[in-house]
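Input/output pair, single chain:
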Amino acid sequence: MRHAMWIRKVTAAALLALVPLAPAVAQVVVTVSGDTAYAQIALTGPLGQPYDADVTIQFDTPQHLTPGNLNLTAQVISPLDPVLVSRLPAGTFVDPAFPVLITIEPLNLPWLFKNGFDNLDAGGNLSFINTYQIDVHTADLECQPNTPYRLFKAPLGGAFFDLSADVRRGSVRGRGRGGGFSQFMLIRDPRLEVISVLGINVPVIALAKVTVLETRIIAAALNNVLQLNLLGLLANVQTALLVLDYTTALLNIDQLIDQIHLHAGVDLPNQWRAERDLTNDAGDIEGLAASLRYSILRLQSPGACPL
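Output:
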């Protein structure tokens, strides 16, 4: 049964790859309530297939949050598009059941304000501090125990990386945090989280996230004392993972996230704005740390797909 279903999915993907995607019809309706933006996405693929999703983005202290300023769009893509495939980590792929790419590129329109065209947003461009939480929910995918679906993010045209801070039922609800935008997809990631190396179990996915987070901390604009503190906590996480001590790993990643909250906006830059002249180090680091935390939780309780 599963083999037959997989063949049907692969066949559908192959058909999508052969059909031009220009005729695809997209509808995205965005509304804003307080600090939260909601998007209802209804797409029709080139073969007439419907794809639907709900996106919720909850901000920390946003300014000038409007549907126009947020500039959220969505499109159907081919799961076999070689350009897209080259942007995914090896071993991951787009499920033909939901080949949807979501792009969030808030508008930077200073000329509108200078010339008095204030019908879009009289106050200015979008900005926020710390992080946003993004939640992508679709009934086109099914969340089962040990679900392989993850929320991935990428800069425009760049490589996708796992941003998942949680994956829940309903049917698949991928959630993540970030300090900036670009493109998002729910990706099928069947890679093993733990592999055996010379008879020793190694949590490779979590350890790879440690490396990404370390690189981001080193690149951040922060003083040496804070940097050494964060890197020390992250080294503790790595050591605990190597001996499969997930309780200690969680304790240290939680302490690292607490330090980000403590220093954000004090001696760690924590603002993003559409002018793109600021780097939201606190938001980026917290988003990566939250994703690492999720991987550790999965190692501690494998197979879960919580409500």
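The chain is about 35% helix and 25% strand. The radius of gyration is 20 Å.
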